[in-house]
Automatic annotation (TrEMBL):
SMART domains: TRP_N. The lineage of its organism: Eukaryota, Fungi, Dikarya, Basidiomycota, Agaricomycotina. Residues 614-655 are annotated as: Disordered. It is a multi-pass membrane protein. Belongs to the transient receptor potential (TRP) ion channel family. Pfam families: TRP, TRP_N. Keywords: Membrane, Signal, Transmembrane, Transmembrane helix. GO terms for cellular component: membrane. InterPro entries: TRP_C, TRP_Flc/Pkd2-like, TRP_N. Residues 633-655 have a biased composition (Low complexity). It is found in: Membrane. This is TRP-N domain-containing protein. GO terms for biological process: fungal-type cell wall biogenesis; transmembrane transport. The chain crosses the membrane at residues 167-185, 197-220, 355-380, 401-425, 431-453, 487-506, 512-532, 544-562, 574-599.
Length: 655
């Protein structure tokens, strides 16, 4: 698993010798008048200095003399800003602008005299999630009216979003789920792996959530967090999205549908990768082309296929593939959840419904598996499989097993459902989506809040620690890791998840406020760790405190992404990379911990078995067959030598 993660990172470090730059999105920056574009793919190969283009465009206005302005902006710096009067080049072939439909796809070698290779720094081909765009503006020479404006973002194909990483964390989760199920079935004293499954999910969900704030993330960091989007239930599938689109449009939804095209073209121009709020004319401005004789010899537009203009239909900009994005148009994606979910082809208003459908699928799988398991138990009774005592043991532990796993699933589903349900309420879109969100929110919250009430009631009734209360076994996913006097500490984590979801979902559009509130939340968790020392061992406290400090530090570093601070693009990329590294290390630490406990587990089981045989007579006298979640007395209430012994084995598993 680690190797897979590493392999995903290596490509960025390795030199990309055969670098390419290509257009990753094309949009109009003014409503199209003169120049209509159906397709615009441009690729520059550094290796052989050639350009591949696949362009379908039409110039439709007659008798128009224009000057062309080309701007190239990388990381907020204007690298190129040249204006060419088209009447003064190519012997006037473009003056007035010829009207024709141009459909062409060709690879051409750039003449060395242009010296393009010298002007594109090597890093542009290597840095993941390159932030750059090119803009072509045609201005009527006499009136200065903008006749056409086209923007295209550039990419080099490298990204911190890697399918390999998504698969790796998926396989990791699956293995851990199987190990956790096995461990709870083998009546482990303390299902550490099952706890770690919830922990790992919550860590991944935290990482994904850091991409949802209304901040001006660097493209690199947003792409990194998108690796973890599926842990929030954001699984994009065009079939599901189409179904949600039609469901919303029939129930009063008016927000834009999901789109299968790249969302980067719709991103607010103030944000990465556009960075127009930072655009400063740089010294490099006059560097390109100004000192060369800009006459592409041997290659003139007259050599391109000309097609009669009668075939060209004026494109309706709403139905066209190429959209118009201006500061005043309504299709601009704002920072936060809209950009994040649209980057994975999920419409902003479809976000909750997507999570909802994924949750339904998981619910269906859970119910099916439970029924199969129950059926197996009945079948075992019928066919006399195994010994009587074995069958009784499994029958006894079945309800507790199901209850505790439902609780774990609820703990995993709670953060995304909270977040996207609250976000759905802020949208006022389809009433059916809102209804679903209210129901799901209440149902999943009840699955978590009800056990909490039950536990408080049980503890009151028995006036002992929770660990000595019989029938509390299936609430173990909540309290099991904490020492007896601090059994309620899980509420700190749940409260943090709740508050974080409220801040992120309800605070969309207020990045600075979101970050400050989240910093307070994370700080509170760190302080709670320091003052309450909730875990059974010092190592457990340190381990959990480490993750809360990681969350605090990463949230703090994200201040650099606050839009109003207008931090330059390159520092934002660097800070994004630092946060990504810190979070990746946290993931690796957690995974290593899981691997170690997996390796040590059989040994612990043997140690426990020894204690169990020692205490078996005692236990039989005391209580009916123990459910898997019954545990020995906690260290604080340990009084008999056997209890001390078994609690010391339990300690081994807690960290
Ligand atoms: C465009 O420029 C050409 C050549 O300079 C000139 O003959 C023509 O009248 C101009 N057309 C307009 C509309 O200005
Ligand atoms: C390009 O240069 C022109 C003047 O030379 C200036 O008006 C324009 O704002 C510049 N564009 C950008 C994007 O810097
Ligand atoms: C040019 O390309 C556009 C879009 O791909 C297409 O609709 C049109 O039919 C093509 N025209 C010709 C003459 O090939
Ligand atoms: C340049 O190299 C790319 C692949 O590396 C190739 O697809 C393209 O055809 C080459 N261009 C020329 C003009 O040979
Ligand atoms: C979304 O798609 C549905 C069909 O799936 C359509 O009826 C509806 O008009 C679309 N809504 C928007 C805003 O484009
Ligand atoms: C167009 O360019 C190609 C090479 O790209 C050349 O073979 C052809 O002869 C040219 N056609 C005309 C009409 O100049």
């Amino acid at each position: 698993m680690l190797l897979l993660l590493l392999f995903a990172v290596i490509p960025f470090v390795a030199a990309a010798s055969n670098g390419v730059l290509f257009t990753s999105s094309v949009t109009y920056c003014e409503p199209p008048e003169t120049l209509l574009i159906q397709q615009f793919d441009l690729t520059y190969f550094a290796q052989n200095q050639s350009i591949f283009f696949d362009i379908a465009a039409a110039s439709v206005q007659k008798n128009l003399n224009v000057s062309a302005n080309i701007v190239l902006n990388a990381y907020g710096m204007t690298l190129v800003n040249i204006t060419v009067d088209l009447c003064s080049i190519l012997g006037g072939a473009l003056c007035p602008l010829p009207t024709y439909q141009f459909n062409g796809s060709e690879t051409i070698s750039l003449p060395a005299s242009l010296g393009v290779s010298k002007r594109i720094p090597e890093i542009a081909f290597r840095i993941p999630d390159f932030e750059a765009y090119a803009q072509l503006t045609l201005t009527e020479a006499t009136t200065n009216d903008v006749k056409a404006c086209v923007q295209a973002t550039l990419s080099n194909g490298w990204s911190t979003r890697q399918p390999a990483v998504e698969w790796a964390i998926g396989i990791l989760i699956l293995l851990l789920l199987l190990a956790g199920l096995w461990q709870t079935l083998r009546s482990s004293l303390h299902p550490l792996l099952a706890h770690r499954l919830v922990d790992l999910f919550h860590l991944f969900q935290f990482i994904a959530t850091t991409g949802l704030f209304s901040l001006n993330y660097s493209l690199l960091y947003r792409a990194f967090t998108l690796n973890f989007a599926w842990t929030l239930g954001l699984v994009s599938s065009s079939a599901i999205q189409a179904a949600i689109d039609s469901m919303r449009s029939r129930t009063g939804g008016t927000m834009p549908n999901s789109s299968s095209t790249s969302a980067v073209g719709l991103v607010d121009r103030k944000l990465s990768p556009w960075n127009t709020n930072l655009a400063v004319p740089s010294a490099a401005q006059s560097m390109l082309l100004a000192d060369t004789d800009y006459t592409p010899t041997g290659y003139t537009p007259t050599n391109l296929s000309r097609i009669a203009l009668t075939q060209v239909q004026r494109l309706d900009s709403t139905s066209a593939q190429v959209q118009t994005v201006t500061t005043s148009s309504s299709n601009v994606l704002q920072a936060g959840i809209p950009i994040y979910v649209n980057s994975i082809h999920i419409g902003s208003a479809n976000a909750f419904d997507t999570v909802f459908i994924v949750a339904l699928v998981i619910l269906a799988i859970t119910i099916t598996l439970s029924l199969i398991l129950y059926g197996l138990l009945l079948l075992a009774d019928r066919l006399d499989w195994g010994s009587d005592t074995q069958r009784r043991r499994y029958r006894n532990m079945f309800p507790g097993f199901i209850k505790s796993w439902v609780l774990r699933l609820a703990l995993i589903a709670w953060p995304p459902i909270l977040l996207f349900a609250i976000y759905q309420w802020t949208l006022k879109d389809s009433w059916l989506s809102t209804l679903f969100s209210v129901i799901t929110f209440l149902a999943v919250s009840a699955l978590i809040i009800w056990p909490t009430f039950q536990m408080v009631r049980l503890v009151r009734q028995h006036s002992t620690g929770i660990f000595d209360v019989p029938d509390s076994g299936h609430y173990e996913p909540l309290y099991g890791r904490f020492r007896a006097p601090r059994y309620f500490f899980y509420i700190v984590f749940l409260a943090a998840i709740f508050l974080r979801a409220v801040v992120v979902a309800a605070g969309q559009g207020h990045g600075l406020t979101q970050i400050i509130l989240c910093l307070i939340i994370e700080l509170a968790i760190v302080l709670a760790h320091i003052f309450l020392k909730p875990f059974k061992t010092r190592r457990g406290d340190v381990f959990s405190a480490y993750f809360s400090i990681v969350r605090l530090v990463c949230t703090g570093l994200m201040i650099a992404f606050v839009e109003s601070l207008t931090v330059a693009a390159i520092p934002r990329v660097a800070i994004g990379a630092v946060i990504a590294v810190i979070l990746s290390i946290a993931v690796i630490v957690l995974v290593c911990n899981i691997v170690f406990s997996l390796v040590r587990w059989p040994w612990q089981r043997r140690a426990r078995q020894a204690t169990l045989t020692e205490t078996s007579t005692l236990e039989k006298g005391q209580s009916p067959p123990r459910s898997i979640h019954d545990r020995p007395s906690s260290p604080s209430s340990a009084s008999t030598p056997t209890a001390r012994l078994s609690s010391s084995t339990a300690n081994l598993t807690h960290q």
